[in-house]
Amino acid sequence: MLKKSRRKIVASLVWVLALLFFGTVAVIYTASYVEVTGENRKMLRQYVEEYMFRDLSDASEAGSGGPGNMPRRGRAAPPMLELSTFYTVVLSKDGEVLNVDTADVSGLEEDALADLAVEIAESGQEEGTRNRLIYQMADKGDYLLVAFLDNTVMAGTTGTLINYTLLFGGVALVLLFFLSWYLAGRIVKPLEESYERQKQFISDAGHELKTPVAVINVNAELLSREIGENQWISNIQYESERMSALISQLLDLARAEHAKPPMEALDFSRLVCGETLPFETVAYEKGLMLNCEIDDEIRVSGNSVQLKQLVSILIDNAIRHGEGGREIRISLKKGKSHAVLSVANEGPEIPPEQRSHLFERFYRTDSARTGEDNHYGLGLAIAKAITVSHEGSIDLQCGDGNVEFIVKIPLLRA
């Protein structure tokens, strides 16, 4: 139980840290991308506003700027605008390509850039991104201008940043996992020590009480033979028997929780059948009928004493809480990797708020019934301890007036 708590603490810490890490990375990446892309679009809009196209007939007068690269500088341009490389395509109103300027970039073909500009003009979208090129389209009066700014460097830089961030972040998460495991161990250690001391106390107290209770019982029996029937002696005997039953259950619980029992190959089908037979008379006296569906040759590795006790606890629990005139259904089936034992009775449904406490020590759904019939709320706690010691699981299912306990025990490996 405490190991499971430790794993939950570690999982929670790592999950929260991972969520914070990836959330932070996502926010940083998104903010950086939006900001840089926004700056690029701002420069592109400014470039488009200042751009002036000179017809090819005036190319001889254009000077070194060329016919398609003639932005006029009405005001001081920011340094990034001067350092950035722009590509332009000039289109007539009829969609004819008048000029293409690739800024002498060898990896960019004029025909491909012209086709892309025509496609953008036909779509009617004034701005956007195509093939890592941020574009801006503007109507300059006599012609349409489609200007591009390459976003490849920014995307590559951001990708490199993300890769390094994820790499070092992953290493940090691994280190944090081991740190969380260590801290969880420190957190759980006092609880584990307290839990172990509690179990040891139950075991020691049970052993210490067993002898004096037995002596009281024997002396009361001898005194009863000496003086005959007596109300006070009968009370002593009754309470002594109840105390003996409680001590016996405490010792059973301590044995189930403390040590790994010796295991052997068992025919679980025969074991369940054998434990079911003695309860037929008990069920009949309460007006109940046992309905058994047990598959043959289901073999498990387990302790026969503890597994018999497990089956007895579940059947006894079903009979005590079953309604008169109804049946108790006992089934044993072979699953993929587990033997599945089910014990169900028809009776009042257990409220959801009580189901999580059923396997706790001394817990009873009816708090008014304390120690009735030598039952102290330890039976299901013992059943769970036995199941856990056999590396299995026990669950409760309620619905449609049925209360069903399902136990899964690993099948014997060949």
TrEMBL record:
Catalytic activity: ATP + protein L-histidine = ADP + protein N-phospho-L-histidine
E.C. designation(s): 2.7.13.3
Localisation per UniProt entry: Cell membrane
Domain called Histidine kinase: residue spans: 204-413
CDD domains: HATPase, HisKA
Alphabetized GO MF terms: ATP binding; phosphorelay sensor kinase activity
Membrane topology type: Multi-pass membrane protein
Protein name: histidine kinase
Naturally occurring in which organism (per UniProt): Candidatus Fusicatenibacter intestinigallinarum
